[in-house]
Design brief:
Elements (H helix, E strand, L loop, with lengths): L3 E10 L2 E11 L4 E5 L6 H9 L6 E6 L2 E2 L10 E4 L11 H12 L4 H15 L14 H14 L4 E5 L7 H18 L2 E6 L2 H7 L2 E6 L2 E6 L1 H6 L4 H6 L6 E8 L2 E3 L4 E3 L23 E7 L4 E3 L11 E10 L4 E7 L2 E7 L10 E6 L5 E4 L5 E4 L17
Parallel strand pairs: 3-8, 3-9, 6-7, 7-8
Antiparallel strand pairs: 1-2, 1-4, 4-5, 9-10, 11-12, 11-14, 12-13, 14-20, 15-19, 16-17, 16-19, 17-18, 20-21
Helix pairs in contact: 2-4, 3-4
This protein binds adenosine-5'-diphosphate and magnesium ion.
Length: 389
């Protein structure tokens, strides 16, 4: 069992605090993605796991063993980098077997067997005799994966392995990585700045910012129940709209609209929907979050009971499968993802409705989530996302 545990992990480079107190438990066989903006400490966290950086404070356990000060070679993890890190003067085969041969732990037969197996799994048999400059980016990354696989490590640590590939190849390799994981079932920690990659690959996703964990959850839970404004705006594209409102008598009141916050009577209560510990008081200023895809142009044909919101269209962007409208609601900028082919022009004022099950409220100061209008099912069954020890 290779459960990986990070406890109160800190890493400082001089004055720079790269990792600022991370507590995380990675399950055996899990595909865990760490996502966050550039510079938030993702690579440093991964390098600490690999033993390529020493911790300033905190503890790392793998399979119950304290490895905090253990040398990288003795951790039995395999790292895959963005730039592939292949030796240019060696063939694919030599690149794959280099670490195994030099370790002296494997017989030649064992090495051959493992290379054949990995080449099979990754479909790279025809690359084994080529040098990296005769391979495409995708092929190089496959060879780099091969090098990681043959070592049969306890965990794969992958740092933006697809970032150097073009968009089409990235999507293809993404699917291959998912397939590879379901075949090998090796514990994998995968770092990316790309939220789509995180959502599609991760069994659980860790959202990081400023060296800290913002939330750990399954992808759909992150999208449906962001615990704070940072996660709400980072996950989802285009980003969630953030509209300043006053909350009074269970309604969100903006300069141009006044809508009910569904949850029975009165003001929304904290916690009942899986939001944070923040408590909203009547008359308080808050941020109403609504995703562009949860706003719709109101249809005069249907007798909608919902109140409508007036939005002035500033820019229209036809995306083919949808029409993205950049709008102003009073003084607030707001994006709406409308049906494609709607005859709407810039300068027009449109009437907008929303999905009442998809409203979010955040503390205007701390950004913490007060409330989600959808009830989160059986929070008890959620795996504990952050260690409480
Ligand atoms: N070797 C280093 N020396 C000094 N600062 C570093 C070093 N490595 C990373 N940092 C700093 O630590 C912070 C986190 O970096 P990093 O973990 O690479 O972020 P990410 O991978 O999320 O983009 C950044 O401010 C970066 O400049
Ligand atoms: Mg990085």
């Amino acid at each position: 069992m290779t459960t990986v545990t990070l406890q109160n992990l800190h890493k400082e480079f001089g004055d720079v605090v790269a990792v600022n107190g991370i507590d995380l438990e990675i399950n055996h066989g899990e595909f865990l993605v760490i996502v966050g903006p550039s510079g938030c400490g993702k690579s440093t966290t991964l390098r600490l796991l690999a033993g390529l950086e020493s911790t300033t404070d905190g503890r790392i356990e793998m399979g119950g063993r304290d490895v905090t000060t253990v040398e990288p070679k003795d951790r039995n993890v395999a790292m895959v980098f963005q730039n592939y890190a292949l030796y240019p003067h060696m063939t694919g085969r030599r690149n794959i077997t280099f670490g195994m041969k030099s370790s002296g732990d494997f017989t030649d037969e064992e090495i051959d067997r493992r290379v054949t197996e990995a080449a099979d799994t990754l479909d790279i048999a025809d690359l084994l005799d080529r040098k990296p400059d005769a391979m495409s980016g995708g092929e190089r990354q496959r060879v780099a994966l091969g090098r990681a696989i043959v070592r049969d490590p306890d965990a794969f640590l992958m740092d933006e392995p697809l970032s150097n590939l073009d968009a089409k190849l990235r999507i293809q390799m993404r699917a291959e990585l998912a397939r590879l994981h379901s075949t090998l079932e090796t514990t994998t920690v995968y770092v990316t700045h790309d939220q789509t990659e995180a959502m599609t690959l991760g069994e659980r996703v860790v959202v990081m910012n400023d060296g800290q964990i913002m939330q750990v959850d399954e992808p759909q839970v992150l999208y449906d129940f962001p615990e704070n404004r940072f996660v709400a705006e980072f996950i989802g594209d285009p980003a969630m709209n953030m509209i300043p409102v006053d909350v009074k008598d269970g309604r969100a009141i903006h300069e141009t609209f006044d809508i009910p916050l569904p949850s029975g009577n009165g003001q929304p209560k904290s916690n009942q929907n899986g939001a944070g510990d923040a408590q909203i008081t009547d008359g308080q200023r808050a941020i109403l979050g609504i995703r562009p895809e949860d706003l719709h142009l109101s249809d005069p044909q249907t007798n909608d009971e919902l109140p409508t919101i007036d939005a002035e269209v500033n820019v229209r962007e036809p995306l083919g499968d949808s029409l993205l409208l950049h709008c102003s609601i009073g003084n607030t900028s707001c994006n709406i993802q409308a049906e494609p082919r709607m005859p709407i022009t810039a300068g027009e004022t449109v009437s907008v409705t929303y999905d009442p099950a998809r409203l979010h409220l955040f503390d205007a100061e701390t950004g913490e989530a007060f409330y989600h209008s959808e009830l989160r099912q059986s929070t008890d069954e959620q795996a504990p996302s952050k260690l409480t020890t």
